[in-house]
Write a structure and sequence with these properties.
This protein is α/β, with parallel strands linked by helices. The chain is built from six helices and six strands. The longest helix is centred in the C-terminal third of the chain and has 14 residues.
C-alpha cells in the first residue's frame, strides 16, 4: 500500500453480490470493503493525527451493491478519498445467469440516477464505466448496435 500511495495509484476493493459469496468473493457489501480499507489504510495517522491520501479504496459496481439498504450511507462514508470507480449496468428480472446476464441501463430494476446522485454528492467526479456482461443478449448483437445503445442509455438513464 505504501508503494501505491507513493506513486499515486490507489488500489480498489470491489464488493461482489452476496450470491457470489460461495465461489467468487468474500467481500459482499460496500460497508465491509470500507471497513477493510479503514483497517489496512487509515487516512489519519495515529501518531501525528495528520491526514494522508488513500492507498486503498473501493470500486462501486451497481450490479453488486444496488440491493443494500445501507448503500447511500456507505457511499457518503467512502467519500471522494475512497470512491475510486463507478460501474453501471442493470439487474434484469428474472436474471438468467448471475455472471453474464447484466442488463443494459434502463432494462432492469436498479435506480441508476439515484445512485449516481449519491456518488456525485460524495465527491466522485470520475467516469461512469459501463459493464454489460451479457452473453445471452448484448454479446449476440453487433458492436455498433451495442455501443450506440450504451451511449443513448448512458445519456438518458444514468
Amino acid at each position: 500500500l505504501e508503494y501505491a500511495r507513493q506513486v499515486g495509484m490507489p488500489l480498489a476493493i470491489e464488493p461482489l453480490h452476496p450470491m457470489q459469496a460461495a465461489d467468487r468473493a468474500c467481500i459482499n457489501t460496500l460497508e465491509h470493503a470500507l471497513d477493510i480499507c479503514d483497517a489496512l489504510d487509515p487516512l489519519t495517522t495515529s501518531a501525528t493525527g495528520e491526514t494522508r491520501n488513500a492507498a486503498l479504496g473501493v470500486a462501486l459496481d451497481v450490479y453488486h451493491v444496488w440491493w443494500d439498504p445501507k448503500l447511500q450511507q456507505q457511499i457518503a462514508r467512502a467519500g471522494e478519498e475512497r470512491l475510486l470507480a463507478f460501474h453501471v449496468c442493470d439487474w434484469r428480472l428474472p436474471t438468467r445467469d448471475l455472471l453474464s446476464d447484466r442488463g443494459m441501463m434502463g432494462d432492469g430494476v436498479i435506480e441508476l440516477q439515484k445512485i449516481r446522485q449519491w456518488v456525485e454528492a460524495a465527491g466522485f467526479a470520475g467516469y461512469a464505466e459501463v459493464e454489460i456482461f451479457s452473453a445471452l443478449d448484448w454479446w449476440q448483437r453487433t458492436g455498433e448496435e451495442t455501443l450506440d445503445t450504451c451511449i443513448e442509455r448512458h445519456r438518458s438513464v444514468v
